[in-house]
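Supplementary Note 3. Input sequence used for the single-chain structure prediction.
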Amino acid sequence: MRKGTLICVLVFFLILLLGIFWYGTGPDVHIADMSAAPIGVQESGQLDIVLRNNGTGPVDVWLEVENTFVDSDGVAHHNSGLLIPSDSGDPWDTEFVSHEKPIHLLPGNNSVGVWIGYYLPGEYPVKVKVVENSRTLDEDTYLVEILPPEIPRDLYLKLEYEMERRNTSDIYRIYGYLINKGLGSEKNVSTNFTVINEKTGDLVFTSSEIYGVGEYDKTPLWTWSDYPYAVVEIAYGEPSGESYMPVQNAVVGKSGDRFRINVTSTWQNRSVSAELLVPPGGKGGDAYDKAV
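The predicted structure, written as discrete structure tokens, is reproduced below.
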């Protein structure tokens, strides 16, 4: 055998032995467990990972995690900078929330968490890889299931008023509430406000607004905290001329007029409505609705 060929063979086997030594004597680190508490769409959650260091001494490793955040277009984003070691007192401490620093694993089990979040319901495979000096020590996949948001079964409307008597008119300030007495939330509750003259049957005023409700929530219908949802002025003579701004729902009538106030809210093919007469005509000062 030629000397040059022998040298090449020896170099090849030397590289092979070094490779075997390099990969065979690396840290013995494995993914022992992964778990995630149930979360809904557009909520933040945490994937808990248990890393098992079977060695006798500490070792520094990195995590590479894929598919932790998926936006409304189905695009997955890497969660760089969102790592939460178990020894962090403040999960948002910049000293800990980083993928740019290694994770220091002591012998035995070590816990670490990564943030997860998804804009749409479905199943999302989160791939976790443990790396040390560009060498993959272990990898695994955890399937995160994101359920669709629970839709409120029943919402309720409550209308009430307070009346102020002036020298020339009666002022009715109307307040309304959209009430969810159970679980589920809805961000798009379309709410229509209409006023009908009881004598003529004419539609006097109409408006619409979008509201959001949470579980066990009572959402006021007015926009400004110091102002009512609507105002009805019944003038004895000349109207006051007051604009009642910033209240958008304002109606002015004359003595003898009676208005039927109707509020209807619609969400996910469900609807609920409430009515109120102004002046009340012998009924109480508030009105509850009935879901339809």
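The mean pLDDT is 82. The domain at 29-146 is CATH 2.60.40.10 (Immunoglobulin-like).
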